[in-house]
Amino acid sequence: MSHLPATISARTDQFLRRAYALAGSSETQSLYDEWAGAYDTDNHALGYASPRRCVEAVIQNMQSARASSDKLKILDAGCGTGLVGDCLAQSSLADKFVLDGVDLSPGMLAVARKKGVYRELETANLNERVEKPDGSYDVVVCVGTLTKGHVGPKVLAEFARLAAQSGLVVATVLGEIWEIGGYKTEIERLRNVGMVQIVSTEEFGILDEANAGGRMVVLKRE
Do you know which Gene3D superfamilies this protein is assigned to (predicted)? Predict the structure, then answer.
């Protein structure tokens, strides 16, 4: 956890260590249900920048002109307490989107629901098929979930399935598992089979004062 600041609270340190050592969906759900009430406070104290930087990546890669005047349909996969929803609501996309979220933890979803940003919030295990039709969303985002002990690289194909033609998938991947975890290889496979175009996979800072720690994956659905 070298990308973390030297001084963090004992509670945050404990939760992060447990999160990086997870083994299985039941254990994951229990941890995040337990963390839900303090999750926003802890991440704000850390200077957690990934949600904001993901939203910035979405805005930067949106087509300058959309054929439809309809609002953007966005899926927040692994939405947690709704940090991405908070950032979207404060961005230039405010009032220009409808947002759905899925997460494994009912406790986290309960916090997200109170924010009033999401249209629908449902429990889902991202290591399994998401029960939504192909091409349902203009944008699929996933922040902080492609990390140690959480969700493997095969979910990227599921995100691409859920994205409409020419839609975007914007996902953060923990830098230290980018290659060894198989995410880089899976993205290249999706490109090679003609499912996506790789727009960028740039390194970015997952904390406010950092310029490293993660990869910001931006894919365009073919």
Answer: Vaccinia Virus protein VP39
pLDDT of amino acid 1: 41
Q: Which residues pair with 198 in a beta bridge?
A: 219
Helices 155-162, 183-192: inter-axial angle, 10-degree rounding? 40
Structure confidence at residue 143 (pLDDT):
98
19 conformational bin, left if phi > 0, alpha if psi -120 to 50, beta if neither: alpha
The label of the residue with tokens 């961005």 reads 91
The secondary structure of residue 180, as a DSSP letter, is: T
For residue 151, pLDDT over 70 is answered with yes
* φ and ψ of 221, to 5 deg: -70, 125
182: pLDDT strictly greater than 50: yes
Torsion region of 182: left, alpha or beta (phi above 0 gives left; psi -120 to 50 gives alpha): left
Query: Is the overall model pTM greater than 0.85, yes or no?
Result: yes
Q: How far apart are CA 191 and CA 188, in angstroms?
A: 5
How many CA atoms within 13 Å lie on the side-chain side of 212? 6
Cβ distance 48 to 80 under 8 Å? no
